[in-house]
TrEMBL record:
Pfam families per UniProt: ABC_tran (PF00005), oligo_HPY (PF08352)
Protein family according to the UniProt entry: Belongs to the ABC transporter superfamily.
Membrane topology: Peripheral membrane protein
Native source organism of the sequence: Methylobacterium crusticola
Gene assigned in the entry: oppF_3
CDD domains: ABC_NikE_OppD_transporters
Gene Ontology molecular-function annotations: ATP binding
Lineage: Bacteria, Pseudomonadati, Pseudomonadota, Alphaproteobacteria, Hyphomicrobiales
Designated name of the protein: Oligopeptide transport ATP-binding protein OppF
InterPro entries, per the entry: AAA+_ATPase, ABC_transp_ATP-bind, ABC_transporter-like_ATP-bd, ABC_transporter-like_CS, Oligopep_ABC_C, P-loop_NTPase
Length: 323
């Protein structure tokens, strides 16, 4: 079988109003030809600084935000062109976990009702069978069945994220987009949630698109990585080789800016060099050229395409133009 998820040439432009007292519109090219693949039961990391398009990629691939162009195929089915009925079936198989689990939980609703809602809406279970499914889901994420009768505010951040994960699991998905799922949690709690996600990946044959700015977390959790910079993929490959010997100058900078990754103590990435990038007015040519120590004339004029650099590895950089 082919890959579970194939994203090809995804593009998305937002128009925003900015400025006071005279408002003007500006165009943000959030995604510019983003392509990647996710295998069955594989965890693909998407890394990059804030504003690089990581979250937009997830939202557009899930059709929570319309795409301008490109293609998304899930299990060989066209997602962006799917009918409402086909999309309903696809939604059962593709779910999302957010950084802030509170955003996915109604504060006035008991946990049992929140977890039961997708099961009810999709006509999967009701009554005693539904309550039993909810108890199973809670057990699977390490919470007692009694949690069903309580409200979101009665739980810690880590417990709320477990509830968010249980909700994403309710419909038995094959793929979960996890958008910075541990970034808001204490380091010790991060490690617990990552262990839970890893055990779920194995037990349920779940695939993940794991979005993070944190190299340590991605290195620990993912098998392959896609690195994004200002709406474009700049490098992708298996996690070990990619971090041991990064090809793209941006990935190299990410690596030296991030302390030695320790799975028990994930650390936030910091980039000490250069200006933080803005998706509002990205530089011409290679978007990375103002921060790149290897930039040359061609980089300022021409955007480098993503090319295969070694088996399973791709890089978008003029330094690798000659085969
Ligand atoms: Fe640096 Fe040029 Fe490669 Fe961009 S294309 S990363 S500016 S060397
Ligand atoms: Mg984000």
């Amino acid at each position: 079988a082919g890959p579970l998820l194939e994203v090809e040439g995804l593009s998305k432009t937002f128009t925003i109003r900015r400025g006071f007292p005279v408002a003007r519109t500006a165009t943000v090219r959030a995604l510019d030809g983003v392509s990647f693949r996710v295998g069955r039961a594989e965890a693909l990391g998407i890394v990059g600084e804030s504003g690089c398009g990581k979250s937009t990629t997830a939202r557009v691939a899930l059709r929570l935000t319309p795409a301008d162009g490109g293609a998304v195929r899930f299990d060989e089915q066209d997602v962006l062109g799917a009918s409402a009925g086909a999309m309903r079936a696809l939604r059962r198989r593709m779910q999302i976990v957010f950084q802030d689990p509170a955003s996915a939980l109604d504060p006035r609703q008991r946990i049992g009702a929140s977890l039961g809602e997708p099961l009810r809406v999709h006509g999967i279970a009701r009554g005693a069978a539904l309550r039993a499914r909810v108890a199973d889901l809670l057990g699977e994420v390490g919470l007692p069945a009694s949690a069903a009768g309580r409200f979101p505010h009665e739980f810690s951040g880590g417990q709320r994220q477990r509830i968010g994960i249980a909700r994403a699991l309710a419909l038995g998905p094959d793929l979960i987009f996890a958008d910075e799922p541990v970034s808001a949690l204490d380091v010790s709690v991060q490690a617990q949630i990552l262990r839970l996600l890893e055990s779920l990946r194995q037990a349920r044959n779940l695939a993940f698109v794991f979005i993070s700015h944190d190299l340590g977390v991605v290195r620990h959790f993912c098998q392959r990585v896609t690195v994004m910079y200002l709406g474009r993929v700049v490098e992708s490959g298996p996690v070990g080789p990619l971090f041991e010997e990064p090809l793209h100058p941006y990935t190299q900078l990410l690596k030296v800016s991030s302390p030695v990754p320790d799975p028990e103590r994930p650390v936030a990435m910091t980039l000490q060099e250069g200006e933080p990038p803005s998706p509002l007015s990205p530089p011409a040519g290679c978007h990375f050229h103002p921060r790149c120590p290897h930039a040359f004339d061609r980089c300022r004029a021409e955007a480098p395409p993503l090319r295969e650099a070694a088996p399973g590895r791709a890089v978008a950089c003029h330094l690798y133009a000659q085969a």
